Amino acid sequence: MDRSALLVFSLGIFFLSFASASTSSSSSDFWTSLSPAWQSSCDVQYDVDNDVNATLNCHVTRQDRGLLRLADLRTALGSGANSTGLKIALNLTCDTGGMVSLPWPMRAPGLVKLTVVNCGMLDKYADFNTSAEQIPDSLRVLDVRDCTWLNKAEAVDRVIRNSEIVTGEYECGQDSTVQFHLYRNVSDMDLDLKCFSVFADASKKGKFQGHLSGDVGQILSMKETEFSDFINFTKTLGVEFSVCADRLVEVRRRKNEGSNSSRIDPMEDMRWSRIQLDKIKVSCNYERLEVMDESYASTLHRKHFEYMVKDSKYPKLRVLNYSHIGIDEVPEEIREWRIFFHESNLSVVDLSHNRIKEVGSIPPFANPLGNQTTKIDLRFNDIRCISKTMFTDWATVPGLFVDIKNNPIDCCCGVSAFKELLVVMQNSSKWPGQPLLTYWKDLSTMRCAYPQHLAGRLIASLNVKEDLHCSEVSVGQTKDVDVGSVSRSPLVAAVVVLAVLVVVLALVLVVLAVRNRRKLCHGASTWDKSASLHSISGKSAE
User: Fold this and answer.
1) pLDDT of res. 180
2) Range from 178-187, 206-215, 421-430 carrying the lowest mean pLDDT
3) What is the CA radius of gyration of the chain?
4) Separation between Cα atoms, residue 53 and residue 45, nearest integer Å
5) Among 138-152, 240-254, 497-511, 528-542, which is the least confidently predicted range?
6) InterPro entries recorded for this chain (predicted)?
7) Is 315 helix (H, G, I), strand (E, B) or coil?
8) Please, which of 52, 175, 210, 342 could form a disulfide with 89 given CB 3.0 to 4.6 Å?
9) Domain limits at 139?
């Protein structure tokens, strides 16, 4: 190695060592800058992997509720994270009743990974229209599970009523950096709708004489000492009680100051929300997002998917997971994903474990991704009716595969179409190419759930003549009809046929009797007319 090369190599080692020492120093400074609440609840690991320089692991107890604030973490990180390249991962795990303050969209300098489990989350709207919106995007992984946003009604109102000034930085979150958005079993609690029953329960449990009904007006009129005792007792009963108690303290403060604490009618608030949300005019570009998981959602806005795709781009999205959310149909935005996610590289759309009964029409748009296959997972839903036409139609959509295994198939639903399906199942050559051949293989493992006498039978094992003793029912009707009760056995079918024949025979006899009666009446009428004519002609002759 010549001298110049050696000099360059030495300088490189020096700068790398300097950068490493600088980052290590920044990590240490960051820990010492944390507030006592963070230091007492968390421990820190340094140089965990190439992605992060330090990881904070925090255990939040019920006594810590609300003490861990993202705003304090921002202060500790400061601007140094941006200048030194410090990267932090934060893991928050809460005991029952534990709460943390995490204003959306959870910005903090150098915070690249955030995991929150089993927490009550406070101050969702605290960063709206503040300087915090200007903190640069840094979050790559957002993993929130089994958590509840505990929202104050006035904070929700403030955002809704100022929707025209909502910025892309707030609405889109950290769209330029986030790669994994995992938001499982996360819900919002509207305090005003729940607190009245909470106060009534607290009044009874605490035996506050004269206020057992939990009437908010009476509680607000308590003397200061009694009110303080009520609030302190209520907070010991759990997260929901504690948050409602804080809300009541705020209402009392405003009341004492003479400010109007009333809100608009809840139903009017809902109508107002829909109108105002439509006024948000921002475009989001989730340029690095690969996985969007919002499964197990207990509350999902009815226009969630519409808002999701409105003015938004997902160029690198691979996985959409909306399993366990309780929907009963495939959203239009999913059925027509080639339009709404036309730039995406979607490989999996998970809608399993819902209540979907029918897939609906999937337009056969061209596949812009060439050989890329998109799988729509519809396992463990409520799909009952299947036919060869259904699979053939799906096969005409380029790059699509629909998985409907583990659905409660009704083997008497649309009898003619189902019989046709059984016939072609006997010959794999009737299922040419992919994905038809895969559908054929899946069908060979699927079983009947209905009717009762076929429950548990492999569909592939059924014999058209011997097993399908079904009445002709059109596709889709069996969701309200117990086909098993209509046709339980060959004996029942024979009895039904015999009854029909008896009715038909009776009708034939009635018709014949009526016709004979008409003939008799017609003969008598003809004789009367002849007699009358004879009488008239006789009179004329006279």
Assistant:
1) 98
2) 206-215
3) 36
4) 8
5) 528-542
6) Cys-rich_flank_reg_C (IPR000483), Leu-rich_rpt (IPR001611), LRR_dom_sf (IPR032675)
7) coil
8) 52
9) 19-289
